[in-house]
Amino acid sequence: xxxxxxxxxxxxxxxxxxxxxxxxxxxxxxxxxxxxxxxxxxxxxxxxxxxxxxxxxxxxxxxxxxxxxxxxxxxxxxxxxxxxxxxxxxxxxxxxxxxxxxxxxxxxxxxxxxxxxxxxxxxxxxxxxxxxxxxxxxxxxxxxxxxxxxxxxxxxxxxxxxxxxxxxxxxxxxxxxxxxxxxxxxxxxxxxxxxxxxxxxxxxxxxxxxxxxxxxxxxxxxxxxxxxxxxxxxxxxxxxxxxxxxxxxxxxxxxxxxxxxxxxxxxxxxxxxxxxxxxxxxxxxxxxxxxxxxxxxxxxxxxxxxxxxxxxxxxxxxxxxxxxxxxxxxxxxxxxxxxxxxxxxxxxxxxxxxxxxxxxxxxxxxxxxxxxxxxxxxxxxxxxxxxxxxxxxxxxxxxxxxxxxxxxxxxxxxxxxxxxxxxx
Length: 424
Known about the structure:
- Residues 56-224 form the Receptor ligand binding region domain.
- Keywords: Membrane, Signal, Transmembrane, Transmembrane helix.
- This protein is an alpha/beta fold.
- It folds into 3 domains: 25-152 and 191-279, Response regulator (Rossmann fold, 3-Layer(aba) Sandwich); 154-179 and 283-337, no CATH class; 355-420, no CATH class.
- Helix content is 41%, strand content 19%.
- The protein is built from 15 helices and 16 strands.
- The strands form 5 sheets. Strands 1, 2, 3, 4, 5 and 6 form a 6-stranded mixed sheet that branches. A 3-stranded antiparallel sheet has the order 7-8-9, covered by helices on one side. The protein has a 3-stranded antiparallel sheet with strand order 10-11-12.
- Helix 2 runs parallel beside helix 10 (221-239), helix 3 packs parallel to helix 4 (112-125) and helix 10 packs across helix 12 (253-261).
- The radius of gyration is 32 Å and the shape is elongated.
- The N and C termini lie far apart (123 Å).
- Residues 1-29, 32-36, 179-201 and 241-249 have low confidence and may be disordered.
């Protein structure tokens, strides 16, 4: 009986160990080749796009920076899947990362279409999804609570650009842009504190080292956003991490989601703070004067609702006009402001007699629309519905140049011909 008791006791111990092992394997962590536990992070990017390549490299750098030093941080394995720009492949990759690899977080997804597909699965699985798509609707984060938009909205930047255009009185501008901003100097001009942040983490040097095959191995906005997203995950995990009891502390995606949404740090793209699941838009933008290919001269700052200022401090003085910031070197290095309303005003003041000539044909049978009569003093009296609409429209325009109606003999067709022939 004594031998049987020992056998039963040994059997119970083995059974207990197996049950404990299975429970640990289901806690979302895995083991590497050295039988060491690690936490799996998932990422889905498009390897065929410049943005996807940048995001992949930036995420790997961030994992090394924030998870590679032990201490109070867990051991993390980053698993990156290629979406190939295909929604079906994206859905399959997300399912594999969550179900097979027990990914605690999903990052990436550069389009709203991809984000929407994965958001449903992530929400059901209670896995935080940090999307890097710029066009995520604000209501989406309410519909899928585990969806976090980690890409900064470009709307605030557009307001800064609009303020500059308004300041110089330009009526028309040519917008030259790229879907991927690959010049870090230009990126620094539209995102606050970027140059300082790049220098602090040595990100640009490391990015070039790991991104050598591209013609322009410089970090763009997509890589910066991806780096910040991984940093937010690292901070959330480090706040809830205990090496002995990590399975209990990180057992729910809700805890990790809460930690991510409580992020508050100075990222490569500016202050990294979430509001209602969306990355808070930047309030301050640095303005730089780009001269040539690489030279950037600091001009000042633009702050929403305050305007332009030379610096950012408690004693800063603000002005609604960018002229307050001083001289700007324009393309071709002229000192005068190019084009726009200012040029029109200068032209009008120097040639006060010049005005727009609005041709009105006299050969018109529908006088209720346009009626041309000569006054006794020789001046022209032009009336009718079309003229009333024209005058009302002009009143709505700011600083429209002076104009006068000119009598033109003939039909509308002959008037158009004179325009083509540039007849004065």
